[in-house]
């Protein structure tokens, strides 16, 4: 098991009963501080570790070139190198089960109004630039740091979502890989994203889980739609979805880091 901590990645060795037999820091000295302090780690389809490191700020030119990036490491933590840059805060990382691509959520900058820039989902590829802090969502030139050429050659997002929703965890539900009973129906095969919710919008948004349909080629097949709501009542939120995961029991699990609850969502139709 690999755990992303603020300044390091730790590997836990488990026995057959899932008890920890060894704990080892394999990637130390990750940059700390600033606005975005969490570190996401993913075991990629190529048996490498991918580590997301968010920016220190809302929008700035970073002094530390590890910030606003995704780094790739060998499974033992060696051989670290820059994999993708220009990602302000890519909290969610997941493997698309249809095509083995790495997809990521990204939190856009603040202070440009209620609806700009959109939140995004990207296909993460080696040696690609995703724009921040000069270009947002593939085609929005930053008014403070950008110029007419800032969006040239920048990767376009797969999905654009409501600004300030704060997308964190994401998970794919592929009926073709699920065993046993209780599968979600075909119409709910796709991508699930936890919206943590806004903090600086005149009308609050987010605080829910959304669904994006995916076809059998692993491509976006429809618009973003609400899946689980009810945490936001007017200007007050009772919870903040943070993570989503598909269990071996075919249920969808949603974590809420405000109330400390994990929800289990099942299909009984």
TrEMBL record:
SUPFAM superfamilies: Soluble quinoprotein glucose dehydrogenase. Residues 19-137, 148-266 form the Pyrroloquinoline quinone-dependent pyranose dehydrogenase beta-propeller domain. InterPro entries: 6-blade_b-propeller_TolB-like, Beta-prop_PDH, Quinoprot_gluc/sorb_DH_b-prop. Gene3D superfamilies: TolB, C-terminal domain. Pfam families: TrAA12. This is Pyrroloquinoline quinone-dependent pyranose dehydrogenase beta-propeller domain-containing protein. It comes from Ktedonospora formicarum.
């Amino acid at each position: 098991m690999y755990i992303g901590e603020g300044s390091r990645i730790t590997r836990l060795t488990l026995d057959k009963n899932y008890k920890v037999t060894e704990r080892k820091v394999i990637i130390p000295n990750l940059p700390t501080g600033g606005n975005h302090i969490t570190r996401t780690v993913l075991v990629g389809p190529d048996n490498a570790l991918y580590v997301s490191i968010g920016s220190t700020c809302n929008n700035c030119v970073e002094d530390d070139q590890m910030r606003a990036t995704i780094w790739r490491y060998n499974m033992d933590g060696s051989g670290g190198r820059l994999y993708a840059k220009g990602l302000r805060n890519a909290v969610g990382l997941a493997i698309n089960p249809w095509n083995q691509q790495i997809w990521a959520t990204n939190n856009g900058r603040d202070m440009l109004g209620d609806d700009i820039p959109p939140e995004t989902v990207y296909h993460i590829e080696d040696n690609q630039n995703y724009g921040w802090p000069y270009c947002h969502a593939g085609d929005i030139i930053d008014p403070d740091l950008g110029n007419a050429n800032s969006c040239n050659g920048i990767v376009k997002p797969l999905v654009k979502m409501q600004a300030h929703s704060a997308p964190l965890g994401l998970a794919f539900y592929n009926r073709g890989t699920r065993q046993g009973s209780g599968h979600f129906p075909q119409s709910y095969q796709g991508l699930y994203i936890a919206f943590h919710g806004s903090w600086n919008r005149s009308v609050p948004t987010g605080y829910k889980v959304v669904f994006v349909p995916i076809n059998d080629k692993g491509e976006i097949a429809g618009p973003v739609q609400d899946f689980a709501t009810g945490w936001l009542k007017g200007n007050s939120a009772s919870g903040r979805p943070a993570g989503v995961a598909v269990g071996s029991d075919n249920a969808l699990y949603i974590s809420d880091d405000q109330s400390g609850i994990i929800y289990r969502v099942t299909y009984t139709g």
